[in-house]
Amino acid sequence: MIKFIDISKTFMVKKQEINALRHVSLDIHDGDIFGVIGFSGAGKSTLLRMVNALETPTEGIVEINGSDINKLSFNELRKVRKDIGMIFQQFNLLESKTVYDNIAIPLVLKRMSKADIEKRVSRLLEFVELSDKKNAYPAQLSGGQKQRVGIARALSTDPSILLCDEATSALDPETTDSILRLLEKINRELNITILIVTHEINVIQRICNQVAVMEQGNVVESGSVLSVFSKPEQGITKRFISTVMPDKIPDSVMEKLKQDIRHYKIIKMRFLGDNVDENVLYFINRHFAAETNMLFASVNELQKAVVGIFILQIIGDDTEIDKITTYISEHNIQWQEVKL
Ligand SMILES: Nc1ncnc2c1ncn2[C@@H]1O[C@H](COP(=O)(O)OP(=O)(O)OP(=O)(O)O)[C@@H](O)[C@H]1O
User: Fold this and answer.
1) Given Cys at both, which of 22, 245, 289, 337 links 217, Cβ 3.0 to 4.6 Å?
2) Same structural domain for residues 58 and 76?
3) Is pLDDT at 276 greater than 60 in this prediction?
């Protein structure tokens, strides 16, 4: 388990304080794919680099499996670092070395025998599906292939934690998808805990089970991806999520609404998981004396659950509208009024 306990980090640049992290507390459990999202400068990389003590906190404690990483002896720290792999946006491969040699570097440093290195590297190349590129140089590889080499190198010491610093930000969407599938396989088959920092919400949506949203050094929102995506609280979270799960009335529909002189209320409902199965809309239309008009609907699958967003215009008198919203609340469906 990785535990950030009340972490703050201040950099001094030309006598000016930069508060890169402010009182950050997070728990990352074994087996998690934990995503940290935020815009540039939010403090994500600084936080990630705390895990292998490439960065030390000004205040607070970073615990890995119960021990304070900044209180370890040199040898103890070296051992912990072997248990932590890291991949980067720009891959960080040695251009003058072949794919094989790049992956073998950590094993050579570990003084592993040649035969064992050969065995381990071949297995890793197979795992990342690059066996045919064993003797190629990085310049002969695509971005996705380079990242696969980076991943194989990070896995070479058999770590239990993998840190990913914007690992897909330099890749096109299709290649991103294949790398994310590989990360999922690493988590599932090798039982490796993954910590990802990214500014791409689709990365979080696609593979993470937990998320923390960072803004100006603070964690402003965190929790399971399902709970945060289905009920985002903070403005920044809503902005990120709306790019992959739109929740706005389309402009053309909005124009028509402006001409509508009937008495109505507009509500936005979010259905989560099981309650999407209940045919609430059917019930509303049959049992209340109001007309409903669907202005927008989207349904997304997340962590094998369904998140539905419906924006409904309810046309009728206030008593009937109140009955409907009470009925919706009683069915534990989140809703809020949308004001034009
Ligand atoms: N070594 C350093 N010296 C001085 N300031 C730093 C250093 N490292 C980071 N910072 C500053 O700390 C803040 C957080 O930076 P950090 O790289 O952690 O953000 P980030 O969210 O990862 O952004 P990006 O995605 O652009 O890397 C920024 O204002 C950055 O300029």
Assistant:
1) 22
2) yes
3) no
